[in-house]
Each structure stands twice: as C-alpha cells, then as structure tokens.
Design a protein that fits this description.
about 200 residues; alpha+beta; about 55% helix; globular
Length: about 200
C-alpha cells in the first residue's frame, strides 16, 4: 500500500468534515480509496451517533422560515452540545431545512411518544373497521404496520420522509448530522403558524 498523501486526507475531510486524524485512519483502512474511506467514516459515525443520542444538549439555535406567500411560518429550537457546532454552517443549514420541512409537511409533534394515546387508539380503530373481513390474528399486525407507515409518517416530524429527499426520514437526517459533528442534536420544540388555521 502506498502512503496516504495530504491531498487525499484533505479531499476526504472536505467531503465528510471529519477530523484529519479520522480521515487518515479511514484512508489507511480503505487502502487510499476516498469513496471507501467515506463509507467507513459514515458507518463509524452512525454507530457513534447512536451512543451520543442520550447526551445532554444545552446549546443550539432558534431558526425560522416564512413562506414566500407570507401565510405560513415556522419557529424551531434545535439544540446541540456545544456552541462551536451551533455556529457551524452545516448546523445552520440543517436548522433551515427543518424549518422548511415543517412548513411544507405540517407535523403535529416531534416524535410518536408525544402523540395522544386516545388519538392513536382512534386511528387504530379506524383501521380495524377497514380490515373487518381479515382473520383476527392478522388484524393487529396489519394495524400496527399501517400506524407506523401512514399515521406516524404523517403526524410525527422524526418519522416523516424528508421533504428534500423522501428516501430519508427526518430522524435519519438528524442522525447523519450527529454522526458528522460527533455530538448530539435534538429538536426541542417547534411552532407552525398558518393564516386561517
């Protein structure tokens, strides 16, 4: 294997925003292949992100978005562990993207844990009536699947397909940023305003 050059390290760092040391280590593991090294950093980062999700967040920023028609707007508090990350351009972009997403997709809550249990039960009952001709042992599984796929994906911000890339959920977008920055990021609260509603 040839030695890893500073140019390769810089290219990977520009692509991933990982530290120089992490980039060099990943390049060594990938035998100098920048794309494989990028994948390696991503896998490592996502594993790290899972561990970081319980860390306290006391810094962050408040962002807002007003749609061009002036009739819909959002305010959002996005928290992180350090002011250094809160000032980062990528963090600011995430904040703006989340505000835009909420404006477009109109979620009710951040996560499914915040949904009213009675609302969930009413939705399940609706699906059960729809499936009355199915065998009883199958109904609960089908209902649970529909609740996940349709109800949570409509009402819960973290479960919604991201408006700019519907192959990714908003929760996964945030996890990718946790992996990138190496610290926890949490949507604390949001408020969506719409004229006439």
């Amino acid at each position: 294997m040839s030695a890893i050059t500073a140019t390769q390290v810089k290219e990977l760092r520009d692509k991933t925003s990982a530290s120089m040391a992490e980039c060099k280590k990943a390049l060594e593991e990938a035998c100098g292949d920048v794309n494989k090294a990028s994948d390696c950093l991503r896998r490592r980062g996502l594993a790290l992100a899972e561990k970081k999700m319980d860390k306290a967040v006391s810094q962050g920023r408040i962002g807002s978005y007003i749609h061009s028609n002036g009739k819909v707007g959002v305010m959002l508090e996005l928290a992180c562990e350090t002011d250094f990350v809160a000032k980062n351009d990528d963090f600011q972009t995430l904040l703006k993207d989340l505000c835009l997403h909420i404006t477009a997709m109109s979620p009710l809550v951040i996560s499914k844990e915040q949904l009213d249990a009675q609302m969930i039960e009413q939705e399940k009952e609706f699906y059960r009536k729809e499936l009355k001709d199915k065998p009883p042992q199958m109904v609960d599984k089908i209902v649970d699947g529909k609740i996940e796929k349709f109800f949570y994906a409509q009402k819960c911000l973290l479960d919604q397909p991201f408006v700019k890339d519907d192959k990714m959920k908003v929760g996964d977008l945030i996890k990718n940023h946790i992996a990138k920055f190496g610290e926890n990021i949490v949507v604390k609260r949001f408020q969506r305003f719409e004229i006439g509603k």
